Amino acid sequence: TGRVGLDIGFVNTASCESAITFIDGDEGILRYRGYPIDQLAEKSTFLETSYLLIYGELPTKEQLEEFTDNVTRHTMLHEEMKRFFAGFPREAHPMAVLSSGVSALSTFYQDSLDPFDEEQVHISTIRLLAKLPTIASYAHKTAIGQPMLYPDNDLGYVENFLRMTFGVPAEKYEVDPVVAKALDRLFILHADHEQNCSTSTVRLVGSSQANMFASISAGVNALFGPLHGGANQAVLEMLEDIQAEGTDPKKYMEKVKNKEDGVKLMGFGHRVYKNYDPRAAIVKKDVRAVLETMNKPDPLLDLAMGLEDIALKDDYFVERKLYPNVDFYTGLIYKAMGFPTEMFTVLFAIGRLPGWIAQWREMINDPKTKIGRPRQVYTGETERAYPSK
Ligand code: CMC
């Protein structure tokens, strides 16, 4: 009632109070529960960071062991669920398979759907963390026509995911520790980012008291889009196109600046960061070293760095404060690890999952939460009479 404010895209409107992630976009600062992202990337592990985001404090050694053990024991999918994968077209995008798989969890686990039952929320939390990598790897295996592998409880979280994705039953899969460490670190960098599009979606769906699987499946779909998580795939495709067509990078940048055919420099710009994205800074530092250690040099890295150099000196980008975001360099690492381009956004989803869970739980436990129900400014016809016939 009364006048409503118009804020398209929620540029100035906070939808909630949150104590999980702090961002200062002008300074390029990102902290989870107060801990700077660079320190977590350096010293923590993905499961420890997940615990921190979800429960608010770093775990003790015993708490982390228990948490890890719990997650490890829930990595298998219900056998019946495998039939889903066979039903999708082979060429389906794995993000679509992933969101369907997460949604399907609420059909298999009807014992953990009550958002106000602490024990049920606990078990859904563990099930999601445990099963998302399994669903993701099965989406990939189905796409390439290889058998799905059961999880191996002797392996760590990331190692198990790598084996399920790249292993085959006929051979023992040797996890490359360099790859596992690099992927774990990338997951930490993606683990939360306050009220971004997918997280806001998770909260909005959850605010109707829909269960956690339903809410997070909606989040996966929001992440799919190229302006959000889908940007990591779009960046690599952009670099490959420029290379394949032999386009001069300067010419490509002219196209971007002239907004020709709506072309953007994918992996650049951010709603909140008006300075270098601190996650991108860490990935940029890592990318060359990781490619060198893996002995997988990639000319696309030089192309990407060349595009960044042009952008950072160009008025168009400087005036608009456009810097590389987290998606600009990650794809080059994923590619070197052997992931097909379509899987890049799936990797983002695995990384972002603890953030979605933490935010959903904070929302459901906050007595101030109300169902999300934005208003509108109506621009249609005023009242008119239905014509007499
Ligand atoms: N290339 C060229 N111009 C751009 C870009 C870009 N990547 N990003 C923004 N601009 C321009 C935009 O055209 C606008 O220009 P003008 O003032 O002349 O109209 C100005 O910069 C402001 O941009 P905006 O679109 O109003 O900003 P926004 O906050 O609504 O959008 C964004 C943020 C991330 C969607 C946008 O920067 C973008 O589309 N970037 C490319 C996609 C991308 O990399 N997304 C990943 C985001 S970070 C991690 C994640 O969420 O996955």
TrEMBL record:
<feature type="active site">
    <location>
        <position position="270"/>
    </location>
</feature>
<dbReference type="GO" id="GO:0036440">
    <property type="term" value="F:citrate synthase activity"/>
</dbReference>
<comment type="similarity">
    <text>Belongs to the citrate synthase family.</text>
</comment>
<dbReference type="InterPro" id="IPR016143">
    <property type="entry name" value="Citrate_synth-like_sm_a-sub"/>
</dbReference>
<dbReference type="Pfam" id="PF00285">
    <property type="entry name" value="Citrate_synt"/>
</dbReference>
<feature type="active site">
    <location>
        <position position="327"/>
    </location>
</feature>
<dbReference type="InterPro" id="IPR016142">
    <property type="entry name" value="Citrate_synth-like_lrg_a-sub"/>
</dbReference>
<comment type="pathway">
    <text>Carbohydrate metabolism; tricarboxylic acid cycle; isocitrate from oxaloacetate: step 1/2.</text>
</comment>
<dbReference type="InterPro" id="IPR010953">
    <property type="entry name" value="Citrate_synthase_typ-I"/>
</dbReference>
<dbReference type="InterPro" id="IPR019810">
    <property type="entry name" value="Citrate_synthase_AS"/>
</dbReference>
<keyword id="KW-0012">Acyltransferase</keyword>
<dbReference type="InterPro" id="IPR036969">
    <property type="entry name" value="Citrate_synthase_sf"/>
</dbReference>
<keyword id="KW-0816">Tricarboxylic acid cycle</keyword>
<dbReference type="GO" id="GO:0005737">
    <property type="term" value="C:cytoplasm"/>
</dbReference>
<dbReference type="InterPro" id="IPR024176">
    <property type="entry name" value="Citrate_synthase_bac-typ"/>
</dbReference>
<dbReference type="InterPro" id="IPR002020">
    <property type="entry name" value="Citrate_synthase"/>
</dbReference>
<keyword id="KW-0808">Transferase</keyword>
<dbReference type="GO" id="GO:0006099">
    <property type="term" value="P:tricarboxylic acid cycle"/>
</dbReference>
<protein>
    <recommendedName>
        <fullName>Citrate synthase</fullName>
    </recommendedName>
</protein>
